[in-house]
Amino acid sequence: MQVSDHRFLNILLCPNCKTANLADQKDKLTCRQCQSTYPVVNSAPYLIHQELIQQYKQYQKEVASPVNKLKTLIKKSPWLFQFLTYAIGSISYFGWSPRKALKKTFREEQLHGKIILNIGSGIKAIHPEVINVDIFPYQNVGLVTDATKLPITDNSVDMVITESTLEHIPDVELAIQEICRVVKPGGFVYISIPFLMPFHASPNDYFRLTSAGIKHKFAIFEEQRVGMNGGPASALVTLLMHFFALPFSIISTSLYNFMTYVIMAVLSPLRILDLVFYLFPRSMDAAAMTYFIGKKRA
Ligand SMILES: [Zn+2]
Prior knowledge:
Blueprint: H1 6-10, E1 22-24, E2 28-31, E3 37-41, E4 44-45, H2 50-63, H3 66-75, H4 78-88, H5 98-105, H6 108-111, E5 116-119, E6 130-134, E7 143-144, E8 157-163, H7 172-182, E9 183-194, H8 211-217, E10 221-228, H9 232-245, H10 253-267, H11 274-277, E11 289-296
Parallel strand pairs: 5-6, 5-8, 6-7, 8-9
Antiparallel strand pairs: 1-2, 2-3, 3-4, 9-11, 10-11
The structure holds zinc ion.
Zinc ion (ZN) binds near residues 31 and 36.
């Protein structure tokens, strides 16, 4: 869904005066209340604060490291990024994906009337009706903004999806509060976050949650399903990547980062063992990543 759709425009708040009264003027949004203007680039409004523009400069420094440069290049091609993630990644995505969760939550014909946000989407396109939200203006992003200050009205969103994003937000508590605020009663969340996974900068990494931790943080949501995306075998592969690559860090950090990817490609087939781990009731105790699907209590 694009910002030209009045349903999307109507839930947006002006970051400056917090009023939901923005006018769509094609290449910009103008606040009718305080007259602030926000650029719209490739149909994506940039609803960001001045401080964020300062943060962009810091991020750009981190993104400029060689491995991150390669990642950024690959991320320009959504299908290649997706293919590499599944073919030689370290995580077995055998649990419910956001796409599957969406399909199980709403029928296809219902989706057209819904407001669904994928926060920290990157380039991933789950469904044409899903609005991609990201702090970076990647391809496919429909709203450029900060997840800790969502410019979105209270109780207005039918579903928030956020996959492997919360761990990268320094003030994660604020982002969690914002998600809880914007979802309407009876609306849904799909939250996926690493549990047993080494540090991974994208551009930085701050946070982990157990399955009990997710349930606690999102207690305003009634649990629909909790599962793992990446079981114990994925956790082992990601740990071994670092275990074997660490000696290379004596030479250089770039070589160490590069070697984690080489070892990931070699050990990647081990992930298949996660299919076996699904048979064991306590596999969640050693999962690489957990997800939570919840319905907001009335
Ligand atoms: Zn305003």
